[in-house]
Amino acid sequence: MARCMLKAKGMPAAFWGEAVTTAVYILNRASTKALDGQTPFEAWHGRKPDVSHLRTFGCVGYVKVTKPGLSKLEDRSKPMVLLGYEAGSKAYRMYDPVERRVVISRDVVFNESAERDRDEYGSGGDAQQQQAAVSSTFVIDEEVEELGHGGQGGICVQGGADGAPAVDGVGEGDDDASTAASNPEQGAGEVTPPLPEGQSSPATSVVAPVRQLTPPPNAAEYLDADYDGEPVHYRLVNDVVGPATPPGLAARELDEAEELLFGSAEEPPSYAEAEKDAHWRQAMEEEMNAIEENGTWELVEPPPSCRPISLKWVYKVKRDERGEVVRHKARLVARGFVQREGVDFNEVFAPVARMESVRLLLALAATRGWNVHHMDVKSAFLNGDLKEVYVKQPPGYVVNGQEHRVLRLRKALYGLRQAPRAWNQKLDTVLKEMEFKRCESEHALYTRRAEHGQLVVGVYVDDLVITGANKKEIEAFKAQMKKTFRMSDLGLLTYYLGIEVEQRKDGITLCQSSYARKFLERSGMGKCRPNKTPMEEKLNRARIARRGRKDHQTAVQHILRYVAGTINYGLIYPRRSGEKANLIGYSDSDMGGDIDGRRSTSGMLFFLGGCAIAWQSMKQRIVALSTCEAEYVAAAAACCQAVWLRRLLREVTGEEPRAPVLRVDNNSAIELAKNPVLHDRSKHIDIRFHYIRECVAEGQVVLGHVDTAQQLADLLTKPLGQRRLAQLMVKIGVEEHIHGGQERTQGLGEEY
């Protein structure tokens, strides 16, 4: 294959190494009989490869010129030859026949139909003569695919559009846009497309200068902000400088307006629309059958001064973790917004499991080798017991001849303000009858200890997360729940509140790829250029703005590009059976990072057995006068979290966990937490922050010093560069999700 690639483009044998590497790259993304039609890439990574960036080996590509101080008449691009693809990214390896070097860049526009001369690959000769020879040998088709403007005229410039660019980003839009093998510091410039056939060469023609725009802090992304719907890198200069509405933005605004006005095409907005579809008619019948089987209501004469609540049908398409339609769900809900507090209801609070608690359960299951199961209560709110509440008969199910009658509810309905609390009280009663004990630190967690092992249940409305040491105990609990409620046994936990969960022998992985893709599509950024960091370093923008500017929109798009760049990353919980899980926390703070109020940002991160379970980033409420005070305030907040996590772990496991270690990278703050030293610098600190002294004195928390380079909470206090962020992500356990899994052993420390 490599030989054919070289012969097809008339390239010398000196490029055989690049040809072989490129051939292997392509074969890994081609289907093979050995894998039943799968590609090797899909078999290894668990997802189909993206081949939209592939181009013909040896074809002509125009690479950005990055030389600073270019005059208006100098070329913004340079013709080179495609040799392959840079490992670990989607950047291209381009050969410069004039300077005889390999350039790595993602900012390339290709013309795969251009012809080249074999002599261009040779050595020797004057550089200017070779450049002229290179330029004169290109045969440019007027309808180049990358232009994408259907024959419109005008000079083109590069804008780096979001939608399907010529090359997906190799990384950070500003840091690594284009690098050369012999000159890593070389940046990125603009690209000028080739002249059409029959036009004079650049050396002899006179081109009218193009009016320059005053660039924002990040010029490339500023252009992208207005043209994120364009399919390619090229855009007409008239489109860039003209007052017309950007096509991508206008189309996206129209789509969002239509969605708000008409709703999703798959989910009907009313009963009149739904009754025309057999799927929704069947879904409504299932809902009515569940209501009747549960004895939810009875038809009665309306009492005096009765104000019945009207009902409405709500329709939802249920999807799995891959986004495929699983079922059509119709829900009959009450218009609870007409209810009056103190008259129609009193208490409405119903506890649900916090995400920190759910992650603690998953981390505990990973460290102890348990499996996590999932159950769903069908029509959960219909099981809650209510006092007298009257509702109107539902649309489409009004009893003929008794239209004036109303329904007196015996059980709760969705939409009632008191329905969640009524259901939670019912479930709480049932679980306590099964000898479960509710955790005082988390009212949505229940534990039961038996001679065959421990059982833990987490509740989030109608979703039950179940884990324990004994599989028979889990199956027995499922059978008990099925006898009491209409349940769906979903087996091992795979999808929970938008989080995809994969349980393997070597660990548990949490990721949100499906949710992230859906969010990017709704934002019009489904095919944007990915970034490797969520924010630029030292970026200062208003946290609250009544009317955001384009630079604010650019910053938001930068975040979305980071989501696209890390869409296949997940949080890995490695299996560590037989090891006791200990709590370890990290606390950090910047110093006056808020340039308006000069307040600092605190960050905290907690691990259980090497698994990240809780984190937080928040601006401090006070202005710290020193780094010691900022770190002390951050450590006090982290101490509260550590005490709660330890108490919750004690209730869940029934064992006394070791005091959590809280690591701080400021020795002065550690000394201040142990003893009332540094009086002149600490006498003004509010008394509530001294809670950490009590915890340290009583042994509830152990403070330890950590070097700043090893401070894992650093990424929660300020924007970091690409290299530093990547190092911390690996240590935290955020890695690219690989099908089949591999155990992570580095950067965790022996105390895990």
UniProtKB/TrEMBL annotation:
In Swiss-Prot or TrEMBL terms, this protein is called Reverse transcriptase Ty1/copia-type domain-containing protein
Q: Which residues form the Reverse transcriptase Ty1/copia-type domain?
A: 294-536
Give the molecular function GO annotations.
nucleic acid binding
Q: Which Pfam families match?
A: RVT_2, SH3_retrovirus
The region called Disordered is annotated at: 115-134, 158-205
SUPFAM superfamilies assigned to the protein according to its UniProt record, in alphabetical order? DNA/RNA polymerases, Ribonuclease H-like
Retroviral polymerase SH3-like domain: which residues?
Answer: 59-116
Which InterPro entries does this UniProt record tie to the protein?
Answer: DNA/RNA_pol_sf, Rev_trsase/Diguanyl_cyclase, RNaseH-like_sf, RNaseH_sf, RVT_2, SH3_retrovirus
Kindly give the CDD domains that the UniProt entry links to this protein.
RNase_HI_RT_Ty1
